[in-house]
Amino acid sequence: MYYMGVDLGGTNIAAGIVSDRGEIVLKSTVKTPEVASPEKIALVIAELCFEIIRGAGLCAEDISAVGVCVPGSVLPEEGIVEVCVNLGFRNVPFGHLLEARLGKAVKLVNDANAAALAEYAAGAGRGCQSLVMLTLGTGIGGGIVINNRIYSGVNHAAGEMGHIVIHQGGEECKCGRRGCFEAYASATALKRLTRDKMKENPDSVMWSLAGSLDSVGGGTAFEAAARNDKAAMQVISQYTAYLASGITSIVNIFQPEVLCIGGGLSGEGETLLSPVREILDREDFARNSKKRTRLVTAMLGNDAGIIGAAMLPLYDI
Ligand SMILES: [Zn+2]
Q: What is the pLDDT of residue 317?
């Protein structure tokens, strides 16, 4: 039996057929229609799904269910997207709209939770009992999977670990608080730290790598640090200290078997993880315990949304 996973984003809609082992059989992507009604988006998704099913040489009966992940809050039992700013959805019965188009049961899930489930079931956490995932991007997304279930709280809004405060009265955060983990350890925050350091150091290699302040990327400081640029090394050291501060608190709460880091920055691999691990080894409350949390990078990249959404029916959610 196969499953269909759909990653509904503000820019692109990606969908794929996934095996029960979490392997993508065939996937495809289309642009998300701009200023479109939920009905129109459901139609575009249904057409994409049928096209992929045909492309894989399968028929609709071979697909047991469809999962859709969205960058917003959902009520899975009711099939409702509560809020999705990127798509302009508010209390949209999107699950039902899509079920009517597809003739299949449709399950909805938040995109960060889908990514966590994918890494748990078929990625960096395969075989583990508990996994916490952090996605370092524009903000920090989070997902918690324990004993084959996504933990999403009383209102399906749990896992927003980007909004624990690591610096009281610190940088403003989009959520309305100050000093959130996300305001210091997201890719956006790394770019801010990089730009600030460049302004203080006009001779830094970061200038020649980025070209200008506007072109600074998440990788600028990492690349310059690899060339022994002192200012860049300071940026990395500061950034990884912020990252470790939040991660240590999260490990202290959950002591998960696996803590998985996703998002573009996870491509830095051990350069990113080693300094965090060093701090964790010093500060984790359970540092003397025989069993420790494994800190790893995500394996599934951009496919995590499709795979996690597809695998929802296989997990007790
Ligand atoms: Zn916040």
A: 61
Same-domain status, 251 and 145: yes
At 86 the pLDDT is 87
What is the Å distance from ligand 1's center to 303 Cα?
Answer: 27
Residue 182 Cα to ligand 1 middle (Å)? 6
Q: What is the pLDDT of residue 77?
A: 92
On whether both 82 and 154 belong to a single domain, the answer is no
- Indicate whether 131 and 278 sit together in one domain: yes
pLDDT value at position 102? Answer: 95
Instruction: Kindly state whether residues 103 and 44 are assigned to the same domain.
Output: yes
**Residue environment code for 48-62, b if the CB has 16+ CB neighbours within 10 A, otherwise e:** bbeebbeebeeeeee
Instruction: Write out the residues surrounding ion ligand 1, Cβ under 5 A.
Output: 163, 173, 175, 177, 180
Model confidence pLDDT, tens digit, residues 278-307: 999 999 999 999 999 999 999 999 999 999
Domain total of the chain: 2
The pairing of strands 258-262 and 294-297 is parallel
Give the closest residue to 143 by CA, choosing from 123, 160, 128.
160
CA of 116 to the centre of ligand 1 (A): 20
User: Containing domain of residue 27, as a range?
Assistant: 2-118+303-314
On whether both 172 and 113 belong to a single domain, the answer is no
Query: Do residues 138 and 286 share a domain?
Result: yes
**DSSP 3-state assignment of 77?**
coil
Rounded to the nearest 5°, which phi and psi values hold at 120?
-65, -45
Residues of the chain with pLDDT under 50: none
Ligand 1 centroid to residue 272 C-alpha, Å: 23
Spell out the long-range contacts of 165-168 with Cβ–Cβ below 8 A and sequence spacing 24 or more: 166/242, 166/245, 166/246, 166/249
Residues in the chain: 317
| pLDDT score for 183 | 97
